[in-house]
Design goal:
The chain has 113 residues and is mainly alpha-helical. It is built from 3 helices and no strands. The chain has a domain at 13-83. Residues 1-11 have a biased composition (Gly residues).
């Protein structure tokens, strides 16, 4: 008598295990997408070329990430960390080139004397 509550759902623990595996696979896919977007954005700031159709693939990845539970975190990460990192890369390159031009300019001045 009274056994209706226990094991009453179809599939029971194996169905839950399947859902957990599905969730893990989705998260792994989201992490892979996140990493590929991160690497591509850094590459662009480093003036490296994107592969064929890579921009489209990255755009689709961003759209998919925004639909997941990670969407708001990704937006914050993109704005506050990844783009900031890219701007630091650009700033450092500008400083490098400014210093190189400054050194070159001084050497040209010595040659003119």
């Amino acid at each position: 008598p009274g056994g209706g509550e226990k094991g009453g759902t179809a599939g029971g623990p194996s169905e839950e295990c399947g859902r957990n595996k599905e969730t893990q696979q989705r998260r792994a896919g989201a992490n892979a997408t996140w990493n590929s977007i991160h690497n591509a954005v850094v590459s662009v700031f480093q003036k490296k070329d994107l592969g064929e159709n890579e921009l489209y693939t990255l755009n689709e990845g961003v759209r998919q990430l925004l639909k997941t539970e990670l969407g708001s975190f990704f937006t914050e990460y993109l704005q506050n960390q990844l783009l900031t990192k890219g701007m630091v890369i650009l700033r450092d390159k500008i400083r490098f080139y400014e210093e190189a031009v400054g050194l070159f300019g001084r050497h040209v001045g010595f040659l003119l004397l």
